[in-house]
Automatic annotation (TrEMBL), chain A:
Name of the featured protein: DUF4870 domain-containing protein
Signal peptide annotation: none
Organism (species): Ohtaekwangia kribbensis
Topology versus the membrane: Multi-pass membrane protein
Superkingdom in the source lineage: Bacteria
Amino acid sequence: MAEVVVFPYRPDDYESEKASNSYLMSLIAVIAGLPLPIINLLATGFFWLSNRKGTFFVRWHCMQALLSQVFVLMMNSAGFYWTLSIIFGDNEVSNTYIAYLITIFIFNVGEFIMTIYAAVNTRKGQHVYFWFFGPLTDQICKP
Amino acid sequence: MANKILTQLVVIVVSFFGLWFLLSQIEYIGEGDMHRFAKESEKKLSEMILESITNTHDEIENEKVKAILDSIKVRLCETKKLDCDKIKIHLVRSSEINAFALPDHHMVIYTGLLEYAKNAEEVAGVMAHEIGHMEKNHVMKKLVKEIGMEMLFTIAAGDAGNDISRETAKVLSSTAFDRKHEREADAFAVETLANADIDPQHLSNFFFRLARKDNLPEELAWISTHPDTKERSAEIIKQKKEYTYTSKPILVTPWESIQQLLVNTDDEDVDEIEEVVADAIDSTEVE
């Protein structure tokens, strides 16, 4: 799901730290963002905005972190509003609802592990390339 | 590159929905629990609850009034091809305007409701609504939600004290179903009434008269367990337009004569009362 590939140039220590922080930002936001899934995206989005004029390596990893957060946001938002509709609306807890919660939990854990892996390796100056989000970032983020 | 992205997106989406689908095949709650709660347990549970109700209220064994309620029940059930015999009606003396469904297709109707109703059609409307709760299995779902499956097993096994059975009866008689369940029961009632050639307008009228009361006395229990009454009254009028029916009266005799039977249960004027009831029952059979 995530692999280390060769980047066009060798990033310096400062760039590696910045790129690694983009992943850490989404990890830290997980703690505050658990009840409100939008917080993860906002935190990563602000970090990307503040680094959009940064070097290619930093911009690329900020964008990959942001895209992966958009995916998580969509999954979690659906679960969040489904839960609200059960608490305040007419919906009931059903097998489908519980299955959805388990599914998004599994995907969240997967994304969490990938993010930690990316944060650690990017800090070492390695270029971590996520499955699907990597090629997508290549299309969006140009040198 | 675009093909690679698209392929990987499809794989992620398929994995997500596939995993969700597989996981939703597992029964975590709900229907599985319902099936687990065997019919026999449901029967025992209703016996325990009924016992706790009849400990505090007198059950009226007036065959004449019960015959009228049964005839209304038959008219409602026949149109929906429901098994009439499984629905058991209990008439209980209480000034509360209330009726509610118990597990195992028991229905409790308080005399206060019959006294408040203006005609047999209004009573039929309330009965159709409660049958709706029975048929849609709302009663057990409500009990599972409010009391919990384990406690229901304990009550059904006879291991729970009288207090717990009393509390369970209270849940059914004095707390509301979910709004979704109420609307489902309303829709069921409108369909059943229309099929039985009873104007659903009477149920709407009954709701509306209850809703007009500004200060709810304690006796108005049915309205406290049936919220949003005005909106639902309007919804019933809207729904009834979807059905075509010829409104036929349930009884030819005045409803007040039937109400008199609830008051005058002594042997005074027996001949006159029996004549009234005989007429009433005959007329329902003709319908």
